[in-house]
Amino acid sequence: MAFSEPNKKVTVIVPVYGAEQYLDECIRSISDQTYKNLEIILVDDGSKDRCPEIVDSWALLDSRIRVVHQENQGVSVARNRALDMATGDYLAFVDSDDHIDTKMIERMVAYLEEYDVDMVNCQFYRQYDTRIEKAHPDYDEEPRVLDPSEAVSILLDEKIFTNYFFTKLIKAEVFEEIRFPVGRFFEDAATMHKVIAACNKICLVKDNFCYYRILDNSVSHTKSLKNIGDALWAAEYCHEGVVELFPEHKVKADILYIKRLYRDYFDLREKCTSKGTTEHKAMLKKTHLLLQRAALSYRGPGRLKYLSYSFPALRYFLGRLVRII
Fold it and tell me: Is the pTM value of this prediction over 0.85?
């Protein structure tokens, strides 16, 4: 693969909050990219630690860095503000506690231009305190060019093509009418199907360029009522959006929706930090009803299997019994 000359500007968007321990490593991995035509937008989302000082100090060291300080409003507002400011031809997203390979942008731009696509999706590493491992170690295929329908089908498998934006390089024009949902967690899951629909072609590559840090206190691993409630909202929003935009994948979307609802039901039963409260009981009942409705209305293959999800308490009990045995 011939590497691209840095003619096109790439805007790298980094929402920053509570990541002082990892922020220098994150910004350095972007600043040290072999692809030099970058615009780096660091949005300090009202962080209470040393993050504001760190981003300001980096702006003095690298003229390509633009810093925004705002009151804490969440990842979506931070990203949306950066999107409104961005002047790049292509967009990349990095989380402030993660970091990327220094050749990532160069290689991703080369893929995007060589295969004439609107988005490139790479693979990633999971980085724990004591080890680093490939998220998809068995994936070793040559670059695949997909149309939006093919890409959504693979997205619904939740494997080699994920909702994570940090594994993507995307043409800026794709975001002309797309922004992230404000006031919600799981903003990636609620937005990715829209981005895919706005693309003409997508390229899926095997290279592992991103280091996704697994933190005990991250949004995707804590189980507050707000967290689970937004997961429920994202599951429903994504399901409705996929069925509307890609009706040919309704069966796959229905199956994933049922599985996500059950996952949220399980989290409410076993991992929620507010168990026993009035709000918790109400959300558990709501999730039960959503799951029952989704399972009873499913009309695809394996209907009996998915019908069993309409009895989540029984399925939950049998699952625990099997684990004990």
Answer: yes
Confidence of residue 268 (pLDDT cuts 50, 70, 90): confident
Question: Apex CA 196: angle with CA 234 and CA 86, to 5°?
Answer: 90
- Give the residue-averaged pLDDT of 129-151: 95
Buried b / exposed e over 209-220, threshold 16 CB at 10 Å, is bbbbbebeeebe
pLDDT beyond 50 at 325: no
Q: How far is CA 224 from CA 14, 141, 161, 228, in A?
A: 25, 38, 27, 6
Residue with tokens 């280091």: 211
DSSP class of residue 103 equals T
Nearest Cα neighbor of 54 from 64, 92, 73, 65 is: 65
Cα torsion 197, 200, 206, 210 to 10°: value is -60
Q: Which phi-psi region, left, alpha or beta, contains residue 297 (left: φ > 0; alpha: ψ -120 to 50)?
A: alpha
Supply the DSSP symbol for 31. Answer: H
